[in-house]
Amino acid sequence: QLSGGEKCRESQQSPRFDYYGAEPAAPDLSDAELPHVIEIYDFPSDFRTEDLLRVFCSYQKKGFDIKWVDDTHALGIFSSPITARDALSTKHLMVKTRPLSQGSRASKAKARAYADYLQPAKERPETSAALARRLVIGALGVRSNLTPAQRDAERRKLQEAR
């Protein structure tokens, strides 16, 4: 039997565990975990960030940001869960939206991996040219043409912003 040159016989016993067909489990995200994040999907693969920002232009003043997952999936990060629900309820021509809990596996994995960076978008504070003016004047050694009253008004405005 050993030297007979027989071919290896296949096992008659079925395998107990099939590791080849195993797929990693999708990260389970509840609606309460990241309620201000939605999945944007089913848009043309040649869309760029500007195109998605144009679709959601009405939310930019309230605070809106985009994180890409792949060519046809992105995560929309809103300033609050209320604005995210509002965006879900509006219909868009070129894109589809759904809650992150119903999103694709890749979107959930990206959201889980970058959960610290997906905090609600905040409005950018009002800017002032005072610091830039002070740096330029200091570098060039020129005198400022602002009156002391204007300087005091700028200082007060910066303190109020802080």
Automatic annotation (TrEMBL):
Residues 1-10 have a biased composition (Basic and acidic residues). This is R3H and coiled-coil domain-containing protein 1-like. Signal peptide: none annotated. InterPro entries: Nucleotide-bd_a/b_plait_sf, R3HC1/R3HCL, RBD_domain_sf, Thc1_RRM. Residues 40-87 form the Thc1 RRM domain. It holds the Pfam family RRM_Thc1. GO terms for molecular function: nucleic acid binding. Residues 1-24 are annotated as: Disordered. It comes from Phoenicopterus ruber ruber.
